[in-house]
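Tip: read the tokens left to right.
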């Protein structure tokens, strides 16, 4: 689990300093019927507290955001052409 915590922490370091990934992770978990606070999410992605559910939700949120940005870049390129 420590290896996963390191990867999550490294992933977090690649994100912009000001973002809403913790809030969106809490919302994603709430949609699954799981209750977590933003502080709990920060503790998991900071490597202080291992939790597979939170780690998985965080990764899902980050992947969705990266996909959204990539799609937006493609659309912007098409619009500019």
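Filled-in amino acids:
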């Amino acid at each position: 689990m420590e290896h996963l915590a390191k990867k999550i922490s490294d992933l977090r370091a690649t994100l912009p300093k000001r973002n809403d990934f913790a809030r969106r992770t809490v919302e994603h978990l709430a949609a699954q019927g799981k209750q977590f606070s933003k502080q709990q999410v920060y503790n998991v992605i900071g490597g202080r507290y291992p939790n597979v559910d939170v780690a998985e939700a965080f990764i899902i949120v980050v992947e969705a955001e990266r996909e959204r940005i990539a799609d937006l870049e493609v659309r912007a390129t098409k619009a500019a052409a």
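The helical segments are 2-13, 21-31, 38-45, 52-80. The radius of gyration is 14 Å.
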